Protein backbone atom coordinates (compact mmCIF):
# COMPACT_ATOMS: atom_id res chain seq x y z
CA UNK A 1 0.00 0.00 0.00
CA UNK A 2 1.38 3.41 -0.89
CA UNK A 3 1.88 5.98 1.87
CA UNK A 4 -0.59 8.80 2.40
CA UNK A 5 1.97 11.29 1.04
CA UNK A 6 2.33 9.18 -2.12
CA UNK A 7 -1.47 9.04 -2.43
CA UNK A 8 -1.67 12.84 -2.09
CA UNK A 9 1.00 13.21 -4.81
CA UNK A 10 -0.87 10.81 -7.11
CA UNK A 11 -4.16 12.66 -6.51
CA UNK A 12 -2.50 15.95 -7.42
CA UNK A 13 -0.71 14.61 -10.51
CA UNK A 14 -3.89 13.04 -11.93
CA UNK A 15 -6.23 15.93 -11.05
CA UNK A 16 -8.16 14.26 -8.25
CA UNK A 17 -7.32 16.56 -5.31
CA UNK A 18 -5.16 19.67 -4.79
CA UNK A 19 -4.20 21.63 -1.70
CA UNK A 20 -6.50 24.65 -1.83
CA UNK A 21 -5.11 27.96 -3.18
CA UNK A 22 -1.83 26.23 -3.78
CA UNK A 23 -0.38 29.19 -5.70
CA UNK A 24 -0.40 31.05 -2.34
CA UNK A 25 1.12 28.16 -0.43
CA UNK A 26 -2.16 26.45 0.52
CA UNK A 27 -3.83 26.46 3.92
CA UNK A 28 -3.65 23.42 6.18
CA UNK A 29 -6.75 21.24 6.28
CA UNK A 30 -8.48 22.58 3.15
CA UNK A 31 -8.56 20.86 -0.24
CA UNK A 32 -9.91 21.38 -3.75
CA UNK A 33 -11.16 18.56 -5.93
CA UNK A 34 -9.91 18.55 -9.54
CA UNK A 35 -11.62 17.32 -12.75
CA UNK A 36 -11.40 13.59 -11.91
CA UNK A 37 -11.86 14.14 -8.18
CA UNK A 38 -15.13 16.03 -8.50
CA UNK A 39 -16.59 13.24 -10.67
CA UNK A 40 -15.52 10.52 -8.22
CA UNK A 41 -16.82 12.51 -5.25
CA UNK A 42 -20.16 13.18 -6.98
CA UNK A 43 -20.47 9.48 -7.84
CA UNK A 44 -19.81 8.51 -4.21
CA UNK A 45 -22.53 10.88 -3.00
CA UNK A 46 -24.94 9.76 -5.72
CA UNK A 47 -24.45 6.07 -4.88
CA UNK A 48 -24.79 6.73 -1.14
CA UNK A 49 -28.05 8.64 -1.69
CA UNK A 50 -29.43 5.95 -4.01
CA UNK A 51 -28.55 3.15 -1.58
CA UNK A 52 -29.59 4.85 1.66
CA UNK A 53 -32.47 7.12 0.62
CA UNK A 54 -34.00 6.45 -2.80
CA UNK A 55 -34.07 2.67 -2.51
CA UNK A 56 -35.81 2.70 0.89
CA UNK A 57 -39.32 3.50 2.02
CA UNK A 58 -38.32 4.52 5.54
CA UNK A 59 -35.85 7.28 4.69
CA UNK A 60 -36.14 10.80 3.28
CA UNK A 61 -33.53 13.49 2.78
CA UNK A 62 -33.02 17.17 3.48
CA UNK A 63 -30.45 19.79 2.53
CA UNK A 64 -30.10 22.51 5.14
CA UNK A 65 -28.10 25.71 5.68
CA UNK A 66 -24.50 25.63 6.88
CA UNK A 67 -25.02 28.64 9.17
CA UNK A 68 -27.87 28.12 11.60
CA UNK A 69 -29.27 29.95 14.60
CA UNK A 70 -26.38 29.94 17.13
CA UNK A 71 -28.70 28.54 19.82
CA UNK A 72 -28.64 25.22 17.94
CA UNK A 73 -25.05 24.71 19.07
CA UNK A 74 -25.75 25.72 22.62
CA UNK A 75 -28.61 23.20 22.78
CA UNK A 76 -26.62 20.43 21.12
CA UNK A 77 -23.75 20.85 23.58
CA UNK A 78 -21.19 21.73 20.92
CA UNK A 79 -20.37 25.17 22.35
CA UNK A 80 -19.46 23.57 25.66
CA UNK A 81 -18.26 20.11 24.82
CA UNK A 82 -17.06 19.93 21.22
CA UNK A 83 -13.38 20.05 22.00
CA UNK A 84 -10.08 18.29 21.66
CA UNK A 85 -7.19 18.51 24.07
CA UNK A 86 -4.48 20.86 22.84
CA UNK A 87 -0.89 21.21 23.95
CA UNK A 88 1.51 24.04 23.07
CA UNK A 89 5.28 24.04 22.92
CA UNK A 90 6.71 26.69 25.30
CA UNK A 91 9.70 27.19 23.02
CA UNK A 92 8.45 27.38 19.40
CA UNK A 93 4.70 27.75 20.24
CA UNK A 94 3.66 24.97 17.86
CA UNK A 95 0.27 23.55 18.90
CA UNK A 96 -0.70 19.87 18.80
CA UNK A 97 -3.67 17.62 19.48
CA UNK A 98 -2.36 15.94 22.63
CA UNK A 99 -4.01 12.53 22.02
CA UNK A 100 -2.48 12.34 18.52
CA UNK A 101 1.02 13.02 19.91
CA UNK A 102 0.52 10.30 22.53
CA UNK A 103 -0.92 7.81 20.02
CA UNK A 104 1.98 8.34 17.64
CA UNK A 105 4.53 7.77 20.38
CA UNK A 106 2.88 4.87 22.23
CA UNK A 107 1.04 3.30 19.25
CA UNK A 108 -1.93 2.95 21.61
CA UNK A 109 -5.32 4.65 21.45
CA UNK A 110 -5.59 7.91 23.42
CA UNK A 111 -8.70 9.45 21.79
CA UNK A 112 -11.11 10.74 24.46
CA UNK A 113 -8.51 10.78 27.29
CA UNK A 114 -8.75 13.70 29.75
CA UNK A 115 -6.26 16.60 29.68
CA UNK A 116 -4.81 15.34 32.96
CA UNK A 117 -4.27 11.79 31.72
CA UNK A 118 -2.71 13.01 28.46
CA UNK A 119 -0.37 15.30 30.46
CA UNK A 120 0.75 12.33 32.55
CA UNK A 121 1.38 10.20 29.45
CA UNK A 122 3.35 12.99 27.75
CA UNK A 123 5.59 13.19 30.84
CA UNK A 124 5.87 9.41 31.23
CA UNK A 125 6.90 8.84 27.60
CA UNK A 126 9.11 11.95 27.51
CA UNK A 127 7.32 13.22 24.40
CA UNK A 128 9.03 16.22 22.81
CA UNK A 129 7.90 18.96 20.45
CA UNK A 130 7.88 17.51 16.91
CA UNK A 131 8.87 20.86 15.41
CA UNK A 132 11.77 22.13 17.56
CA UNK A 133 12.64 18.82 19.27
CA UNK A 134 12.70 20.42 22.74
CA UNK A 135 11.28 18.99 25.93
CA UNK A 136 9.07 22.08 26.38
CA UNK A 137 5.50 20.92 25.83
CA UNK A 138 3.15 22.77 28.22
CA UNK A 139 -0.01 21.72 30.05
CA UNK A 140 -2.74 20.11 27.90
CA UNK A 141 -6.00 22.09 27.83
CA UNK A 142 -9.36 21.80 25.99
CA UNK A 143 -9.74 23.63 22.67
CA UNK A 144 -13.17 24.18 21.08
CA UNK A 145 -13.36 23.14 17.42
CA UNK A 146 -16.25 25.38 16.32
CA UNK A 147 -15.59 27.81 13.45
CA UNK A 148 -17.01 31.24 14.25
CA UNK A 149 -18.38 33.81 11.86
CA UNK A 150 -20.50 36.98 12.04
CA UNK A 151 -23.83 37.46 10.33
CA UNK A 152 -24.64 40.93 8.95
CA UNK A 153 -22.79 44.21 9.31
CA UNK A 154 -22.01 44.02 13.04
CA UNK A 155 -19.08 42.29 14.69
CA UNK A 156 -20.44 41.79 18.20
CA UNK A 157 -21.62 38.88 20.36
CA UNK A 158 -25.16 39.17 19.01
CA UNK A 159 -24.00 38.77 15.42
CA UNK A 160 -21.88 35.72 16.21
CA UNK A 161 -22.78 32.48 14.45
CA UNK A 162 -21.05 29.18 13.67
CA UNK A 163 -20.35 27.03 10.65
CA UNK A 164 -21.94 23.65 11.37
CA UNK A 165 -19.51 21.01 12.69
CA UNK A 166 -21.91 18.19 11.69
CA UNK A 167 -24.95 17.94 9.45
CA UNK A 168 -26.88 16.05 12.13
CA UNK A 169 -28.25 18.98 14.13
CA UNK A 170 -30.40 20.46 11.37
CA UNK A 171 -32.01 17.04 11.00
CA UNK A 172 -33.13 17.43 14.62
CA UNK A 173 -34.21 21.06 14.25
CA UNK A 174 -36.28 20.12 11.16
CA UNK A 175 -37.52 16.86 12.67
CA UNK A 176 -41.14 17.84 13.19
CA UNK A 177 -41.59 19.56 9.80
CA UNK A 178 -40.05 16.66 7.90
CA UNK A 179 -42.01 14.03 9.81
CA UNK A 180 -45.27 15.84 9.09
CA UNK A 181 -44.53 16.76 5.46
CA UNK A 182 -43.33 13.29 4.49
CA UNK A 183 -45.99 11.60 6.71
CA UNK A 184 -43.32 9.40 8.26
CA UNK A 185 -44.20 6.62 10.68
CA UNK A 186 -41.65 5.14 13.08
CA UNK A 187 -39.19 3.61 12.57
CA UNK A 188 -37.83 6.10 10.02
CA UNK A 189 -34.69 7.98 9.12
CA UNK A 190 -33.76 11.41 7.82
CA UNK A 191 -30.60 11.77 5.77
CA UNK A 192 -28.44 14.67 4.74
CA UNK A 193 -25.26 15.17 2.72
CA UNK A 194 -23.38 18.41 3.19
CA UNK A 195 -20.36 20.37 4.28
CA UNK A 196 -19.12 20.43 7.87
CA UNK A 197 -16.36 22.54 9.39
CA UNK A 198 -14.10 21.85 12.35
CA UNK A 199 -11.17 23.95 13.43
CA UNK A 200 -8.98 20.87 13.88
CA UNK A 201 -5.84 21.53 15.94
CA UNK A 202 -3.66 19.39 13.73
CA UNK A 203 -5.22 18.35 10.42
CA UNK A 204 -3.38 15.26 9.25
CA UNK A 205 -3.13 12.49 6.74
CA UNK A 206 -4.32 14.43 3.67
CA UNK A 207 -8.13 14.14 3.34
CA UNK A 208 -8.46 12.01 6.47
CA UNK A 209 -8.58 14.88 8.95
CA UNK A 210 -9.34 18.23 7.35
CA UNK A 211 -10.98 21.43 8.54
CA UNK A 212 -13.62 21.55 5.81
CA UNK A 213 -15.16 18.25 4.77
CA UNK A 214 -18.45 16.69 3.78
CA UNK A 215 -20.64 14.31 5.71
CA UNK A 216 -23.33 11.83 4.71
CA UNK A 217 -25.45 11.33 7.81
CA UNK A 218 -28.63 9.55 8.86
CA UNK A 219 -30.60 9.97 12.06
CA UNK A 220 -32.68 6.83 12.48
CA UNK A 221 -35.62 7.27 14.88
CA UNK A 222 -37.51 4.55 16.76
CA UNK A 223 -40.21 4.44 19.44
CA UNK A 224 -38.63 4.42 22.93
CA UNK A 225 -40.58 1.26 23.84
CA UNK A 226 -39.30 -0.52 20.71
CA UNK A 227 -35.56 0.12 21.00
CA UNK A 228 -34.63 -3.46 20.10
CA UNK A 229 -37.33 -4.27 17.53
CA UNK A 230 -35.45 -4.35 14.25
CA UNK A 231 -37.55 -6.16 11.62
CA UNK A 232 -34.64 -6.47 9.15
CA UNK A 233 -32.05 -8.21 11.31
CA UNK A 234 -33.18 -11.76 10.49
CA UNK A 235 -32.26 -11.22 6.82
CA UNK A 236 -28.62 -10.44 7.60
CA UNK A 237 -27.87 -13.00 10.30
CA UNK A 238 -25.25 -14.90 8.25
CA UNK A 239 -23.29 -11.82 7.14
CA UNK A 240 -19.71 -11.88 8.45
CA UNK A 241 -17.86 -8.88 9.84
CA UNK A 242 -14.51 -8.45 11.60
CA UNK A 243 -15.53 -7.36 15.11
CA UNK A 244 -13.48 -5.52 17.76
CA UNK A 245 -15.68 -4.97 20.80
CA UNK A 246 -14.83 -2.83 23.85
CA UNK A 247 -14.27 -6.05 25.84
CA UNK A 248 -11.86 -7.44 23.24
CA UNK A 249 -9.89 -4.18 23.39
CA UNK A 250 -9.81 -4.09 27.20
CA UNK A 251 -8.63 -7.71 27.39
CA UNK A 252 -6.03 -7.28 24.65
CA UNK A 253 -7.77 -9.82 22.43
CA UNK A 254 -7.53 -9.67 18.66
CA UNK A 255 -10.55 -8.64 16.51
CA UNK A 256 -12.64 -11.64 15.46
CA UNK A 257 -14.61 -12.47 12.32
CA UNK A 258 -18.20 -13.09 13.43
CA UNK A 259 -21.59 -13.68 11.87
CA UNK A 260 -24.13 -11.04 12.83
CA UNK A 261 -26.32 -13.66 14.53
CA UNK A 262 -23.43 -14.84 16.69
CA UNK A 263 -22.35 -11.27 17.59
CA UNK A 264 -25.93 -10.60 18.71
CA UNK A 265 -26.55 -13.87 20.56
CA UNK A 266 -23.25 -13.48 22.46
CA UNK A 267 -24.13 -9.86 23.26
CA UNK A 268 -20.98 -8.62 21.56
CA UNK A 269 -23.24 -6.26 19.67
CA UNK A 270 -25.93 -5.31 22.10
CA UNK A 271 -28.73 -3.93 19.97
CA UNK A 272 -30.11 -5.50 16.74
CA UNK A 273 -30.51 -2.02 15.20
CA UNK A 274 -26.78 -1.37 15.67
CA UNK A 275 -25.96 -4.70 14.04
CA UNK A 276 -28.31 -3.82 11.18
CA UNK A 277 -26.85 -0.36 10.50
CA UNK A 278 -23.28 -1.62 10.81
CA UNK A 279 -24.18 -4.28 8.25
CA UNK A 280 -25.73 -1.66 5.93
CA UNK A 281 -22.64 0.54 6.02
CA UNK A 282 -20.15 -2.36 5.73
CA UNK A 283 -22.18 -3.80 2.88
CA UNK A 284 -22.34 -0.47 1.05
CA UNK A 285 -18.55 -0.34 0.86
CA UNK A 286 -18.28 -4.01 -0.10
CA UNK A 287 -20.95 -3.59 -2.81
CA UNK A 288 -18.76 -0.88 -4.32
CA UNK A 289 -15.74 -3.15 -4.43
CA UNK A 290 -13.96 -2.52 -1.10
CA UNK A 291 -12.13 -5.59 0.20
CA UNK A 292 -13.90 -6.71 3.38
CA UNK A 293 -10.55 -7.79 4.91
CA UNK A 294 -9.70 -4.08 5.16
CA UNK A 295 -12.87 -3.25 7.10
CA UNK A 296 -13.71 -3.90 10.74
CA UNK A 297 -16.20 -2.60 13.29
CA UNK A 298 -14.82 -1.29 16.60
CA UNK A 299 -16.85 -0.37 19.66
CA UNK A 300 -15.99 2.84 21.52
CA UNK A 301 -14.59 2.40 25.02
CA UNK A 302 -16.54 4.19 27.78
CA UNK A 303 -14.04 7.09 28.03
CA UNK A 304 -14.19 7.61 24.27
CA UNK A 305 -17.95 8.12 23.88
CA UNK A 306 -19.24 11.53 22.75
CA UNK A 307 -21.24 13.55 25.26
CA UNK A 308 -24.53 12.48 23.62
CA UNK A 309 -23.91 8.76 23.14
CA UNK A 310 -24.42 5.63 25.24
CA UNK A 311 -22.98 3.21 22.68
CA UNK A 312 -21.04 3.85 19.47
CA UNK A 313 -19.42 1.59 16.93
CA UNK A 314 -17.04 2.77 14.23
CA UNK A 315 -16.50 1.18 10.87
CA UNK A 316 -12.72 1.29 10.48
CA UNK A 317 -10.48 0.92 7.43
CA UNK A 318 -6.95 -0.41 7.38
CA UNK A 319 -5.19 2.75 6.15
CA UNK A 320 -1.38 2.81 5.70
CA UNK A 321 -1.28 4.83 8.95
CA UNK A 322 -3.28 2.18 10.86
CA UNK A 323 -6.88 1.11 11.44
CA UNK A 324 -8.84 4.36 11.58
CA UNK A 325 -12.46 5.51 11.79
CA UNK A 326 -14.24 5.68 8.50
CA UNK A 327 -17.70 6.20 9.92
CA UNK A 328 -19.47 6.10 13.27
CA UNK A 329 -22.79 4.54 14.22
CA UNK A 330 -23.85 6.20 17.47
CA UNK A 331 -26.83 5.57 19.72
CA UNK A 332 -27.87 9.18 20.51
CA UNK A 333 -31.00 8.25 22.44
CA UNK A 334 -33.40 11.19 22.78
CA UNK A 335 -30.60 13.57 23.83
CA UNK A 336 -30.83 15.91 20.84
CA UNK A 337 -34.62 16.17 20.52
CA UNK A 338 -34.92 16.74 24.27
CA UNK A 339 -32.22 19.41 24.21
CA UNK A 340 -33.86 21.26 21.31
CA UNK A 341 -37.26 21.02 23.00
CA UNK A 342 -35.78 22.51 26.15
CA UNK A 343 -33.88 25.32 24.42
CA UNK A 344 -36.44 26.25 21.72
CA UNK A 345 -39.49 25.65 23.92
CA UNK A 346 -41.09 23.92 20.89
CA UNK A 347 -42.72 20.52 21.08
CA UNK A 348 -40.87 17.95 18.98
CA UNK A 349 -42.68 14.93 20.40
CA UNK A 350 -44.98 12.58 18.47
CA UNK A 351 -48.38 11.18 19.46
CA UNK A 352 -48.73 7.49 20.28
CA UNK A 353 -52.13 6.46 18.89
CA UNK A 354 -52.21 3.21 20.88
CA UNK A 355 -51.19 4.58 24.25
CA UNK A 356 -52.85 7.94 23.62
CA UNK A 357 -49.91 9.93 24.88
CA UNK A 358 -47.01 11.95 23.55
CA UNK A 359 -43.44 10.62 23.46
CA UNK A 360 -40.00 11.67 22.20
CA UNK A 361 -38.46 9.28 19.64
CA UNK A 362 -34.95 7.90 20.13
CA UNK A 363 -32.12 7.94 17.63
CA UNK A 364 -31.13 4.31 17.90
CA UNK A 365 -28.45 4.68 15.24
CA UNK A 366 -26.74 7.61 13.61
CA UNK A 367 -24.64 6.31 10.70
CA UNK A 368 -22.30 9.20 9.96
CA UNK A 369 -19.73 9.00 7.18
CA UNK A 370 -17.24 11.52 5.85
CA UNK A 371 -17.37 11.79 2.04
CA UNK A 372 -13.67 12.64 1.91
CA UNK A 373 -12.71 9.61 4.03
CA UNK A 374 -14.84 7.40 1.78
CA UNK A 375 -13.05 8.98 -1.21
CA UNK A 376 -9.70 8.02 0.32
CA UNK A 377 -10.87 4.45 0.97
CA UNK A 378 -12.10 3.99 -2.61
CA UNK A 379 -8.82 5.40 -3.93
CA UNK A 380 -6.70 3.07 -1.76
CA UNK A 381 -8.85 0.09 -2.62
CA UNK A 382 -8.61 0.84 -6.35
CA UNK A 383 -4.92 1.76 -6.55
CA UNK A 384 -2.92 -1.01 -8.21
CA UNK A 385 0.59 -0.76 -9.52
CA UNK A 386 0.56 -3.24 -12.41
CA UNK A 387 4.09 -4.60 -12.75
CA UNK A 388 3.55 -6.02 -16.24
CA UNK A 389 2.03 -2.84 -17.59
CA UNK A 390 4.47 -0.73 -15.56
CA UNK A 391 1.75 1.72 -14.71
CA UNK A 392 -0.96 2.42 -12.18
CA UNK A 393 -4.37 0.92 -12.88
CA UNK A 394 -7.06 2.54 -10.79
CA UNK A 395 -9.60 -0.27 -10.47
CA UNK A 396 -12.54 1.83 -9.32
CA UNK A 397 -15.98 0.21 -9.29
CA UNK A 398 -17.92 0.93 -12.53
CA UNK A 399 -20.45 3.01 -10.59
CA UNK A 400 -17.70 5.19 -9.15
CA UNK A 401 -15.24 5.52 -12.03
CA UNK A 402 -15.11 9.23 -13.00
CA UNK A 403 -14.89 8.46 -16.72
CA UNK A 404 -16.70 5.48 -18.16
CA UNK A 405 -15.35 5.53 -21.72
CA UNK A 406 -12.35 7.14 -23.41
CA UNK A 407 -12.56 7.51 -27.18
CA UNK A 408 -9.37 7.46 -29.24
CA UNK A 409 -8.64 7.79 -32.95
CA UNK A 410 -5.87 5.21 -33.56
CA UNK A 411 -3.72 7.88 -35.20
CA UNK A 412 -4.17 11.47 -34.17
CA UNK A 413 -2.82 12.90 -37.42
CA UNK A 414 -5.37 11.19 -39.68
CA UNK A 415 -8.27 13.57 -40.18
CA UNK A 416 -10.76 10.86 -41.18
CA UNK A 417 -10.02 8.84 -38.00
CA UNK A 418 -10.27 11.92 -35.77
CA UNK A 419 -13.57 12.92 -37.37
CA UNK A 420 -15.07 9.44 -36.98
CA UNK A 421 -13.81 9.23 -33.38
CA UNK A 422 -15.44 12.59 -32.63
CA UNK A 423 -18.70 11.25 -34.03
CA UNK A 424 -18.48 8.20 -31.75
CA UNK A 425 -17.58 10.44 -28.80
CA UNK A 426 -20.62 12.67 -29.46
CA UNK A 427 -22.83 9.59 -29.59
CA UNK A 428 -21.56 8.18 -26.27
CA UNK A 429 -21.34 11.40 -24.31
CA UNK A 430 -25.12 11.82 -24.47
CA UNK A 431 -25.31 9.01 -21.97
CA UNK A 432 -21.93 8.42 -20.29
CA UNK A 433 -19.15 10.52 -18.88
CA UNK A 434 -16.61 10.21 -21.73
CA UNK A 435 -13.19 11.56 -22.57
CA UNK A 436 -11.83 12.29 -26.03
CA UNK A 437 -8.08 11.75 -26.15
CA UNK A 438 -5.88 12.42 -29.17
CA UNK A 439 -2.58 13.14 -27.40
CA UNK A 440 0.43 10.80 -27.91
CA UNK A 441 0.62 7.15 -28.94
CA UNK A 442 -2.32 4.83 -28.38
CA UNK A 443 -0.26 3.10 -25.64
CA UNK A 444 0.19 6.40 -23.78
CA UNK A 445 -3.53 7.06 -24.04
CA UNK A 446 -4.40 3.64 -22.59
CA UNK A 447 -1.87 4.32 -19.83
CA UNK A 448 -3.53 7.66 -18.98
CA UNK A 449 -6.98 6.07 -19.02
CA UNK A 450 -5.86 3.26 -16.68
CA UNK A 451 -4.49 5.78 -14.19
CA UNK A 452 -7.74 7.74 -14.29
CA UNK A 453 -9.75 4.56 -13.68
CA UNK A 454 -11.46 4.85 -17.10
CA UNK A 455 -13.40 1.63 -17.60
CA UNK A 456 -13.36 1.22 -21.37
CA UNK A 457 -11.20 2.49 -24.20
CA UNK A 458 -12.91 2.75 -27.59
CA UNK A 459 -10.50 2.98 -30.51
CA UNK A 460 -11.38 4.01 -34.04
CA UNK A 461 -9.07 2.56 -36.70
CA UNK A 462 -9.17 2.25 -40.50
CA UNK A 463 -11.34 -0.85 -40.31
CA UNK A 464 -13.84 1.21 -38.32
CA UNK A 465 -14.32 3.45 -41.33
CA UNK A 466 -14.99 0.52 -43.63
CA UNK A 467 -16.94 -1.83 -41.35
CA UNK A 468 -18.51 0.72 -38.99
CA UNK A 469 -16.91 -1.11 -36.03
CA UNK A 470 -14.74 -0.02 -33.12
CA UNK A 471 -12.44 -1.78 -30.65
CA UNK A 472 -13.55 -1.84 -27.00
CA UNK A 473 -10.78 -2.45 -24.44
CA UNK A 474 -11.40 -3.40 -20.82
CA UNK A 475 -9.35 -1.50 -18.20
CA UNK A 476 -8.75 -4.40 -15.82
CA UNK A 477 -8.06 -7.28 -18.20
CA UNK A 478 -6.85 -5.33 -21.26
CA UNK A 479 -8.98 -7.71 -23.34
CA UNK A 480 -10.47 -6.26 -26.52
CA UNK A 481 -13.47 -6.98 -28.74
CA UNK A 482 -14.93 -5.43 -31.89
CA UNK A 483 -18.37 -3.87 -31.63
CA UNK A 484 -20.61 -2.32 -34.31
CA UNK A 485 -20.97 1.44 -33.79
CA UNK A 486 -24.75 1.10 -33.91
CA UNK A 487 -24.61 -1.32 -30.93
CA UNK A 488 -22.02 0.59 -28.94
CA UNK A 489 -24.31 2.54 -26.58
CA UNK A 490 -26.27 -0.57 -25.68
CA UNK A 491 -23.07 -2.63 -25.16
CA UNK A 492 -21.52 0.02 -22.88
CA UNK A 493 -24.75 0.28 -20.92
CA UNK A 494 -24.83 -3.47 -20.36
CA UNK A 495 -21.13 -3.62 -19.51
CA UNK A 496 -21.68 -0.93 -16.87
CA UNK A 497 -24.47 -3.06 -15.42
CA UNK A 498 -22.00 -5.91 -14.94
CA UNK A 499 -22.31 -8.03 -18.10
CA UNK A 500 -19.05 -9.56 -19.34
CA UNK A 501 -17.11 -8.23 -22.32
CA UNK A 502 -16.92 -11.73 -23.84
CA UNK A 503 -20.71 -11.72 -24.23
CA UNK A 504 -20.48 -9.08 -26.97
CA UNK A 505 -17.71 -10.42 -29.18
CA UNK A 506 -14.61 -12.61 -29.54
CA UNK A 507 -11.40 -11.38 -27.90
CA UNK A 508 -8.95 -10.11 -30.49
N1 LIG B 1 -22.91 13.54 13.80
C1 LIG B 1 -21.90 12.67 14.32
C2 LIG B 1 -20.55 13.04 13.95
O1 LIG B 1 -20.32 14.07 13.35
P1 LIG B 1 -18.07 12.24 14.06
O2 LIG B 1 -17.49 10.92 14.44
O3 LIG B 1 -17.51 13.44 14.71
O4 LIG B 1 -19.62 12.12 14.32
C3 LIG B 1 -18.57 11.51 11.62
O5 LIG B 1 -17.95 12.43 12.49
C4 LIG B 1 -17.70 11.23 10.43
O6 LIG B 1 -17.33 12.45 9.78
C5 LIG B 1 -16.37 10.55 10.76
O7 LIG B 1 -16.52 9.16 10.90
C6 LIG B 1 -15.54 10.91 9.55
O8 LIG B 1 -15.83 10.06 8.46
C7 LIG B 1 -16.03 12.32 9.23
N2 LIG B 1 -15.12 13.32 9.83
C8 LIG B 1 -15.15 13.80 11.09
N3 LIG B 1 -14.19 14.71 11.28
C9 LIG B 1 -13.52 14.81 10.11
C10 LIG B 1 -12.41 15.60 9.66
N4 LIG B 1 -11.83 16.48 10.45
N5 LIG B 1 -11.99 15.43 8.38
C11 LIG B 1 -12.60 14.55 7.56
N6 LIG B 1 -13.65 13.80 7.92
C12 LIG B 1 -14.11 13.92 9.18
What can you see in these coordinates?
By secondary structure, this protein is α+β, with helices and mostly antiparallel strands. Helix content is 32%, strand content 26%. The protein is built from 17 helices and 25 strands. Strands 3-9-10-18-15-14-13-11-12 form a nine-stranded mixed sheet. The protein has a five-stranded mixed sheet with strand order 22-21-23-24-25, sandwiched between helices. Helix 2 crosses helix 13 (371-382) and helix 5 runs parallel beside helix 6. The longest helix has 20 residues, at 35-54. It is globular. The two termini are 33 Å apart. 39% of the residues are buried. The mean pLDDT is 96. Glycyl-adenosine-5'-phosphate is lined by residues 166, 168, 198, 200, 209-210, 213, 215, 217, 325-328, 366, 368-370, 372-373.
Attribute tags:
508 residues, alpha+beta, nine-stranded mixed beta sheet, five-stranded mixed beta sheet, 25 strands, 32% helix, globular, binds glycyl-adenosine-5'-phosphate
Q: What can be said about this structure in brief?
A:
The protein has 508 residues and is α+β, with helices and mostly antiparallel strands. Strand 14 and strand 15 (322-331) form a beta hairpin. The structure holds glycyl-adenosine-5'-phosphate (GAP).
